[in-house]
Amino acid sequence: MLVVMKAQATQEEIQAVCEHIEQLGFRAHPLPGAQRTAIGITGNQGEVDRGDLEELSGVAEVIRVSKPYKLASRDVKQEDTVIRFAGTDASIGGQDLAIIAGPCSIESREQAFAIAEQVAASGAQFFRGGAYKPRTSPYAFQGLGLEALRIMSEVRECFGLRIVTEAIDNESLDLVAEWADVVQIGARNMQNYSLLKRAGQLRKPVLIKRGLSATLEEFLMSAEYVMSEGNYEVILCERGVRTFTDHTRNTLDLSIIPSVRRVSHLPILVDPSHGTGKRESVLPMARAAVAAGADGIIVEVHDHPEKALSDGPQSIYPGQFASMMNELEQIAPVVGRKLPRGIHAKAARA
Ligand code: PEP
Ligand code: MN
Fold first, then answer.
1. Residue 252 CB partners (closer than 8 Å, separation 6+)
2. What would the pLDDT profile of 93-133 be if each residue is shown by its tens digit?
3. Does the C-beta of 104 come closer than 6 Å to ligand 1?
4. N or C: less crowded end of the chain, CB within 10 Å?
């Protein structure tokens, strides 16, 4: 259920409706919009008696949300969600495209700094890098853990880049939440509901990657898990799904972008690195993603991909990243977007 407040409803009226909902034993989720505030109700198994609610001061109407995802739905919030990062000009979900770049794994301080310097100089606002890696083989490099988080924190200090890194379980979630600006939940964990619930208790943006065989509804239900716990800063990421093709590692399903945008207010990014698994396919698919309406790109960049400890074959060179930025800058205005760069790029060059 959804309580739509009148445009002129006061903060006190919104508060009173939330309290009423909580007294009924449900959870209230006030989601302010440009025109009016909507209050999502969760925790109810069946219908909530709308009679009482409709009588409350400041309430315009009470609507039943028919979709299984409620808080992630555009029915609850019409405007696109824009996630901002205090003290920076970086954002995810607005008119500006968000660009997240960096290696698959943090391998050393030297490696991280060399790559960060170059992606910052090209205008990325976010630096990615795995500290905890979900690897198919238990014998493969598992990540540097806390040491990598410390290195990324230095990268933030030095280059002004916001840090995006993955939590793979409850233990790493606590550490990642302490050090990162955006907590990534990987494709393999998209349906790890206890991890999603814990991520929902954080007050940090959560980036959820689409599971290898997840439908749109399953993907949005994962976002709903995080939001149902009170964390509304969720970013979706298409990273390719498993199909029968053998020319790419995964099939990048760009057609999910317009579908997400139609039914949800949450930002959707595209990862052309895992989505293709092939360096030469990354740039074309990044261009296509922006053309299709993605809110940004998360891409793997490595200065020596042949020596990378993970995902070298799909990592682009810093020079290719610079070309990608130039190309996206030209495509962005065609679809009503902008590629902001400048502050970080200038700072990195200075
Ligand atoms: C990654 O971003 O390096 C990663 C492991 O991604 P995914 O969860 O999409 O496989
Ligand atoms: Mn990777």
1. 238, 239, 240, 270, 272, 275, 276, 285, 289
2. 999 999 999 999 999 999 999 999 999 999 999 999 999 99
3. yes
4. C
Using a pLDDT cut of 90, give the percent of the chain over it: 91
- Ligand nearest, relative to CA of residue 311: 2
Assess whether the C-beta atom of 130 lies below 6 angstroms from ligand 1. yes
**Residue 237 alpha carbon, nearest atom of ligand 1:** 9
Q: Which atom of ligand 1 is nearest to the CA of 134?
A: 5
This model's pTM is above 0.85? yes
Question: pLDDT category, 283, cuts 50, 70, 90?
Answer: very high
Ligand 1 site, residue 208, Cβ cutoff 6 A = no
198 touches ligand 1 (CB under 6 Å): no
> Which residues lie near ion ligand 2 (Cβ < 5 Å)?
104, 311
